[in-house]
Amino acid sequence: GRSGQGANAYSLYFSLEKGWLLLGTDIIERHHVAVGTVTIDGDAACLGPTPMRHLLYNIIGFDTVAMNWMIAISQGHGYLYSSSSHELYNLNYAREFVASREDVGKFVGYKLGVICTTLFLFFVTTTLVSFTLRETQERMLKFTLILQHHVRHRMSYVALIISHLVDSLVYVPLMVGILFFLFEFFSDQLLAFMVLSVVWICEVYSVISVRTTESIQLFPRLFLLYFTLFHVYFFSYPFAFSHLALLSTVTLLCHGMLFFWDRFEVPGYQDGTISQNRPRAVPIGTSLHGAVGVSSRSHTVGESVGTDWMRSLSHSALPRGPAFQRRVSRTFGPIDEDRVRGYSEPASSTVWDDL
Which GO terms describe its cellular component (predicted)? Predict the structure, then answer.
């Protein structure tokens, strides 16, 4: 079919067999292959009101609309080729969706599968992102503390930086693995990357800005709600407006972040509920996946990672004798023993106090 006229013509080709769409126009004419043409005017009522038509022409495109038309006509069979995007879409992926509407049992089973897949993705992505964020943050804070020690004593820190970079490369395969894991669920790789980016942004916001009791209890649940709604929509309708749905989800999440910051965090700072001596309302932090039963210790920016390292060093390193100190010195450089022995944890210290 074609939508529009002249330079604005928008052509889409449908066939039950993939091979027909791979043939060139000259081959089709030479072998007298019958081709049916359906022309839809750009101002047709089936394309919606004028604002919707402008949205289709300039932003969304007609691919998604045409795919859903052909899925309804062919019952989830066939292939669609778009001459504008040069994409060949396999509509057979919609068979399960079409079959789920035949009776109530199949519909319920299909929806349960969608919900289980959504929850599985939620737990896996948030857990891996939270783990990576905590580990990299802890390593960075330790690196900063040791680097400061080297700079103060005018020691060479080239080996320290190289060692830190090599250690950080461990997380590159982890992030690549997360992406390839998401590619198995999202046929659109760009969409998978954007979903992972949204999880990262929300996890960082949760670690840095979610500090009051109300935010810790409510924001992870809000994220779970929006995350679930998007994925239920995405998996329920195989060829839907996924990018627009993700844009709506991101907009709602941004609204939620601003709401929690203005409603709970700012008043918490003003009335002293959150302060330097009490950077978080509860001692055990809650990350995004903590709202649904996966609790973990959350190291936030400015909390006691460096303090814990110095305390463990003062309790375990020096009493073990010169041999152990030489091993530490080869790894991190010479240790300032006076500073370590004289180190005592303040009432509520942060790593920035140590730095």
Answer: endoplasmic reticulum
Please provide residue 276's backbone torsions phi and psi, each rounded to the nearest 5 degrees. Answer: -65, -35
Q: Is 297 helix (H, G, I), strand (E, B) or coil?
A: coil
Average pLDDT for the chain: 75
pTM over 0.85: no
* Residue 76 φ/ψ, nearest 5 degrees: 80, 30
* Stretch among 151-165, 279-293, 315-329 having the lowest mean pLDDT: 315-329
Is the per-residue pLDDT at 257 higher than 90?
yes
Q: How far apart are CA 21 and CA 81, in angstroms?
A: 7
Smallest CA-to-CA distance from 142 within 122, 114, 168, 105 is with: 168
Q: CB-based contacts of 235: which residues, under 8 Å, 6+ apart?
A: 114, 117, 118
Whether 17 contacts 77, CB under 8 Å: no
Residues 239 and 118: beta-carbon distance below 8 Å: no
CA distance linking residue 54 with residue 193, whole number of Å: 28
With H, G, I as helix, E, B as strand and everything else as coil, classify residue 223: helix
Q: Which residue blocks in the chain are alpha helix, DSSP H?
A: 18-22, 25-30, 50-55, 63-74, 95-99, 104-152, 158-168, 171-183, 189-208, 213-236, 242-260, 266-270, 305-316, 322-332, 337-341, 351-354
Question: Whose structure tokens read 């240790």?
Answer: 335
90 CB-near residues (< 8 Å, 6+ apart): 18, 79
Token pair for 309: 């390292």
| Chain CA centroid to CA 99, Å | 31
Give tens-digit pLDDT for 18-28: 888 888 778 87
